[in-house]
Amino acid sequence: MADYAKYVGIFGLPVDNMTLDETVSKIFDLCNDYLLDKRPRLVATVNVDFLVNLHSAKNYQVRHPELMAILRQADVVTPDGMPLLWFSRLMGKPLRERVTGADLVPQIAQEATRLKKSIFFLGGSGDVAKRAAQTLQKRSPELMVAGFSSHYVHVEGEYLADDDIRDDEIVEKNNYDKPDILLIAFGNPKQEIWYWRNRHRLKVPVSIGIGGTFNFVTGAISRAPEWMQKIGLEWVYRITQDPARLWRRYFYGFVKLTLFVAPLLPRVLYSAKPKTVLAGASNRVRLIFGQDKISILLPSQVTGEVVKTIVRDIEAVDTEHLEFDFADVEYVDIAAIGELLVLRRDKLRENCTMTARNINPTLRRTLIAHRSLDLFDMNYLLSGSTAQSEDGESTTVQGNAPYSLNSDGNISVLSFFDRLDAHRVSQIDTRDLQDKLKGSDVIIDLTKVRFVDSSAIGFLVKIKRIARKTGNKVVICGIKDMVRQVFRMTRMELVFELAENLREADVLLRVTT
Q1: Does the structure show a pLDDT above 60 at 157?
Q2: Average confidence (pLDDT) over 210-214
Q3: What are phi and psi of 368, to 5 degrees?
Q4: Which bin fits 18, alpha (ψ -120 to 50), beta or left (φ > 0)?
Q5: Residues in contact with 280: Cβ distance below 8 Å, sequence separation at least 6, in sequence order
Q6: SS3 content of the chain, % helix, strand, coil (to 5)
Q7: Do 252 and 52 meet the contact criterion of CB atoms below 8 Å apart?
Q8: What is the pLDDT of residue 2?
Q9: Comparing C-alpha atoms, which of 249, 231, 247, 251 is closest to residue 239?
Q10: DSSP labels, 312-337
Q11: N or C: which end of the chain has fewer CB within 10 A?
């Protein structure tokens, strides 16, 4: 019997290693979990397009920080693409089965009918959401359709400033119709970004990003024969259906994925260890429990089983920080990376940080090639109310105003902290802030901000509009590299005047004034 890992780390993402049937069962378990804690869940179906969007081919940097943050905090990530399975086999920890949106949605509809759960169909072009709902109802006449809607989503440009208003209608409709499952068909990354910016006000147990699945359900796009699906040639069939549009997309995707895999091939050959050596490695883990910290001394061979043992040992312990010591580590497999990514996700929800020490240069290069070294870097995925800055200074976000405002009458300095996202923005009284900024130029200080999302950038556009109405200017300063990359991905880097620091911003405003 094959040794299957529970999670597999695929280029920085923790992919759930489940069959289609297990995934469907898990989704309805998540529906039940929502009844206990009222926390909405996200299921992402990840294919090569996601990896292409996430990472840069020229270096090991994250290309799309917002999408990475979302996927790393998703409750389930399924492998919707044969290349993900091929990579997992190459790395020695095979994924069990491809779980695509096109296979998932019909089975969800069948199980929802049996369990008397309702589904809302959102997205797609024209009336495809309505037709998909009707098609599934014909197959299962007792299927409860909560509703359907087409909705255009912006994830870049100045339209971001108005999308919260456009989102209100569909969020309110979902909350009124109370579906158990929301199928979101905006395509990657729009569907994930739309969910994430509205998650704090959505009252839907489980949302699933399904891309173009509605077109498969209705038959508008036919699927490849089953034999082609099984051997991983469905992409060939897809290209023959729409060659003018798809050949570039698939060619670019495979080239970029090859560039991702190539640096790992020598490490696969060099790092492969006999199972007899790996056996019992978990017995050599040492845990040192402190008052607010657990130090974890890892063995030379870190496997998925090693990390699972650690998770079991610390599960009942309340701590603020986990420190992993890699001093003795020679080898980390992708199952361990997957488990560590999931551990990080869960600890973030508990406001517990994770760091690493004593990573040797060889292991560091391996983790970088796997796009996973930053799983110990808390710079842009912190979710708690208190953050530790890079210079050691502690910043506390208080109440519903995660900002400070200082003004000398002519220039107002608006400083934000920790992270600036849709949830934080929703806590800010925009009218009150507008009154405070009236009649002055504005410096927006992001020096202590570790992460922004596209909704936050839309909010900054609103501030710029407020200032513009009274003939005032806005300058943004202190942008970190990861935050700057979000500006680039939303095509907003050139919309704002940017300065390196407060002094430069102040000089810039006074000169232009």
Answers
A1: yes
A2: 93
A3: -65, -45
A4: beta
A5: none
A6: 45, 20, 30
A7: yes
A8: 54
A9: 247
A10: HHHTT---SEEEEE-TT--EE-HHHH
A11: N
SS (H, E, C) 379-413: CCCCCCCEEECCCCCEEECCCCCCEEEEECCCEEE
Output the CA torsion sign for 124, 126, 129, 132: negative
For the stretch 283-289, contacts whose Cβ atoms lie closer than 8 Å and that sit 24 or more positions apart, written own/partner, are 285/309, 285/310, 285/313, 287/313, 287/314, 289/317, 289/319
pLDDT of residue 247: 75
Q: In what order do the strands lie in the sheet with 474-477?
A: 403-407, 411-420, 441-452, 474-477, 497-499
> Which residue do the tokens 């979990």 mark?
33
Q: Count of CB atoms within 10 A of residue 149's CB?
A: 16
Higher pLDDT, 183 or 160: 183
- Quote the pTM value: 0.90
Q: Are strands 7-10 and 497-499 parallel, antiparallel or unpaired?
A: unpaired
297, 327 in Cβ contact below 8 A? yes
Which of 10, 28, 24, 157 minimizes the C-alpha distance to 95?
10
Backbone phi, psi, residue 146, to 5°:
-70, -30
Is pLDDT of 452 > 60? yes
pLDDT of 4: 80
Phi-psi group of 294: left, alpha or beta (phi > 0 → left; psi -120 to 50 → alpha; rest → beta): beta
- Spacing of C-alpha 208 from chain mean position: 13
Q: Which domains does the chain have, with CATH numbers?
A: 12-262 (no CATH), 275-376 (3.30.750.24), 401-512 (3.30.750.24)
